[in-house]
Design a protein that fits this description.
Largest sheet: none
Radius of gyration: 17 Å
Number of strands: 0
Distance between the termini: 29 Å
Length: about 130
């Protein structure tokens, strides 16, 4: 059976998945703590940027929304055999800013920094996608 070596895009995918799992575990922990303190399940869906519970929910949703995009890029890179230093650098930048985006959101830091992080991620994904067609 042929196997594919772990490339930067695949390592990035593994890190993305592990980060998503970590956020889900953190969200579940906060939900359980909230319920144990007498909170209501209805609070889970109440938009409130001041609430860690709500911010974690949004981070988890955002990760789940973005994972297929990154997975698609990794698929294209892998199938087309595109690799090299530019790909590796874009993958590292993408993953770093994907995690940074989550941390900024969880911490409740000024949303402008999330926007900057998102733009950087989008530029990386577009560049990587374009590279698969060159």
């Amino acid at each position: 059976m042929n196997s594919i070596n772990m490339t930067f895009p695949l390592w990035g995918l593994a890190i993305f998945i592990l980060w998503t799992i970590a956020v889900v575990i953190l969200l579940l922990t906060i939900k359980i703590r909230h319920l144990s303190a007498g909170g209501s399940v209805k609070d889970f869906g109440t938009p409130n940027d001041e609430s860690l519970l709500w911010r974690l929910f949004r981070v988890q949703s955002n990760l789940v929304e973005n994972l297929p995009l990154y997975l698609g890029v990794v698929f294209l890179l892998t199938v087309r055999g595109v690799s090299g230093t530019p790909v590796d650098l874009l993958i590292v930048v993408y993953i770093v800013f994907r995690i940074l985006h989550s941390v900024i959101h969880i911490a409740g830091i000024n949303p402008i920094y999330r926007l900057v992080s998102l733009v950087i991620q989008l530029v990386c994904l577009v560049a990587l996608t374009v590279m698969t067609f060159l």
